[in-house]
Amino acid sequence: MKKFLFIFLILMNTASLYALSFGPDQILQCPVDGNIHKVRTIRSYNTLGGQYWTDGFATFPMAPSFPHITKCGKCGTYLWREEFTIIGEMPFSHEDEGNLPIAWQEAEYIRFLTLDEYFEAIEKGKADTDERELYIRIKIWWAINDQIRNRIGEYTVNPILGNDVYVQNLLRVIKLLENDSSPESFLRRAEAYRELGRFGAATRMLNRDFDRGYLRAVREIKKLIWKKDTIVRRLFLD
Fold it and tell me: Which one of 70, 96, 104, 169 has the fewest CB atoms closer than 10 angstroms to its CB?
């Protein structure tokens, strides 16, 4: 009994140590019109209870994600996080907030873009490096697949296939990953080809040696290729 209690206390302390804990909100200033925004910061997190999908999308109850690109709520300019000026941070105590500028107190959190806004951000020149373009185009891919994620079981054909703009976006993702020889790149390209119905190309991406940690995902995607399934699917990796 004592041994069980000892182990239980260790587990509880470990879980507490890595529980989700937010740091102070950062205050950001738009470089175009000076409008004030804020963004959360994280002190600690864990990935327990994560949900993984074949397109690389994942959610974690105790590890929220924040946008790298957003849109100014006032002037409408698309901005990468690093283009904002960090001008301060919010205090932890609500009692101290009354001493802050009203603009800080009323500032809204930066947000993720919508599907249409991601396309518009590209048109506005925000995909000015391969890395930035890849980030935006993967976000577009995920936003399209969110239609399926939110209504799983209602689709038999991927909605990407009915829209040439969506197809070209996914082909561009594949192109941007061509020079990346990491396991993640091969998995992502295999999934992109699979969702496009190009099952031979998808198989070729997986015909290589993967480290043990990737084998479960490789097997799952291969099964979907064999079934000629083009729908994004949940990965059960635990």
Answer: 96
206: burial class by Cβ within 10 Å (0-12, 13-18, 19+)? buried
Element (H, E) at 71: strand 69-71
CA distances from 142 to 57, 183, 188 (A): 7, 19, 12
Mind listing the pLDDT tens digit for each residue in 27-68?
999 999 999 999 999 888 888 888 899 999 999 888 889 999
pLDDT of residue 14: 45
Helix (H, G, I), strand (E, B) or coil at 53: strand
Q: How far apart are CA 192 and CA 178, in angstroms?
A: 12
Enter the pTM of the model. 0.87
Give the residue among 127, 115, 202 at the shortest CA–CA distance from 160: 115
